[in-house]
Design goal:
Belongs to the bacterial solute-binding protein 1 family. GO terms for molecular function: maltose binding. There is one protein chain. This protein has about 400 residues and is of the alpha/beta class. The protein folds into 2 domains: about 180 residues, D-Maltodextrin-Binding Protein, domain 2 (3-Layer(aba) Sandwich), CATH 3.40.190.10; about 190 residues, D-Maltodextrin-Binding Protein, domain 2 (3-Layer(aba) Sandwich), CATH 3.40.190.10. About 45% of the residues lie in helices and about 15% in strands. It has a 5-stranded mixed beta sheet with strand order 2-1-3-11-6.
């Protein structure tokens, strides 16, 4: 891995600094870090927290794993009761909820003096998600997006030469490949009633001319009708309504689905576990040459404004950032910085998949940012759930979501 000279030297200098200070020379300080990393698989926050904690620098790190569905509300409760962690990792659209309310520490001046954190090298989307009113409240931890994994062996057996480029082809191929009586599904995705559902559905809205401010588009209604029809006919499993992306993609990885909408965090698992030939293609569009979109995912790191040890917490944050060159090789995550190079792994499938996701990132659009993103997102995934379970027609569900969102925005 080639890492920018400045980042490498800064990381070495930081490591030398913390290693050179004996614990006896200062009072022990404990920094608490909360993240979802480690809930499903080993991740950067749990790994780097453990590494920093093992350094003899007078700063201990206590790490707590929270579930994806719990971390925002748990952090809000902890902040309100004076029991917040020192550092928390949040999904990027949730960051504005905290920074806009003064819950995150303004690190603008600290970053300006840092030899490790340089805001100028961050990609625009991730940088915007940690900024509020022109001030910096955190750093991007990693970024990601979604595309379509497909089973090349199944495609070849069915005489399908290329992966789907439009949603019509996606449905056509899924129906052709599905064998419901054998427990084989044509595709899988996550339409779960949480942020993961919004993460996969919002790009459909965006590529059909909408956005989080305007969700009731013709394309969104067509897509919901398509997906419901595939669920009703057994082409998609009913489980797509309840499974998160990790578990949903596991259906594909085990050879029980021909396609899966998911992201680059799955690449290493595919390389290790899939016993079939597979590839990745861009998220389909509604028509050939039509507008593309995809989700801008990833998490951020912020220091809570209630911390009693801002300088020590910032040192922990700097250590995390100094390890950004390890994000993809070790965890399959894409860095949020332009100065971190991604080397070829030498594994053909992995390198080909990475190239597709890097291309897909060019079309990725953010969720928000908006201080009330959780309420906006809930309106979107509630509409998806209502339409796909048949409680409402797509138009009724999206109209209701639009009314809710209009109330929030106005």
């Amino acid at each position: 891995m080639q890492f920018a000279k400045r980042g490498l030297l800064a990381g070495l200098a930081l490591g030398a600094l913390v290693a050179a200070v004996p614990a006896q020379a200062q009072d022990e300080v404990t920094i608490t870090v909360w993240s979802i990393d480690g809930a499903n698989q080993v991740g950067p926050s749990d790994t780097f927290s453990k590494e920093f904690d093992e350094m003899d620098n007078g700063i201990n790190v206590e790490y707590r794993i929270l579930q994806f569905d719990e971390i925002v509300n748990e952090t809000l409760r902890a902040f309100a009761t004076g029991n917040a962690p020192d550092i928390v990792s949040l999904d990027n659209p949730d960051f504005a909820l905290f920074s806009s309310r003064g819950a995150f520490l303004d690190i603008t001046d600290m970053a300006a003096e840092s030899d490790v954190i340089n805001p100028e090298v961050y990609f625009e989307g991730p940088l915007n998600s940690v900024s509020w009113d022109g001030r910096l409240y955190g750093v991007g931890k990693y970024t990601d997006t979604i595309g379509v994994f497909y089973n090349k062996d199944m495609f070849a057996e069915a005489g399908i030469e290329n992966p789907p480029q439009t949603w019509a082809e996606f449905e056509e191929y899924a129906r052709k490949l599905a064998k419901p009586d054998q427990g084989l599904y044509g595709a899988t995705l996550s339409a779960r009633g949480n942020e993961e559902g919004t993460f996969q559905f919002l790009p459909v809205i965006q590529m059909s001319g909408g956005g989080y401010e305007n969700v009731n588009t013709e394309g969104a209604r067509e897509w919901l009708s398509m997906v419901k029809g595939m669920i009703d006919d057994g082409v998609l499993s009913q489980d797509v309504l309840s499974l998160g992306q990790w578990d949903s993609t596991g259906t594909f990885n085990s050879g029980n689905a021909a396609m899966a909408i998911s992201g680059p965090w799955e690449i290493d698992r595919m390389v290790e576990d899939a016993d079939f030939d597979w590839g990745v293609t861009l998220l389909p569009t509604f028509g050939e040459g039509d507008e593309r979109s995809s989700a801008l995912g990833g998490f951020n790191l912020g220091i809570m404004s209630t911390t009693e040890h801002p300088e020590e917490a910032f040192k922990v944050l700097e250590y995390f950032v100094s390890q950004d060159d390890r994000l993809f090789p070790e965890f399959g995550y894409l860095p949020t910085r332009s100065d971190v190079e991604l080397p070829l792994s030498g594994i053909e499938k992995k390198d080909a998949a990475l190239a597709v996701f890097q291309e897909q990132l060019q079309y990725a659009q953010p969720r928000g940012p908006h201080p009330e993103w959780q309420k906006i997102s809930k309106a979107i995934y509630d509409a998806e759930q209502a339409a796909l379970t048949g409680q409402m027609t797509p138009d009724e569900a999206l109209s209701q979501a639009q009314k809710t969102i209009d109330t929030i925005l106005n």
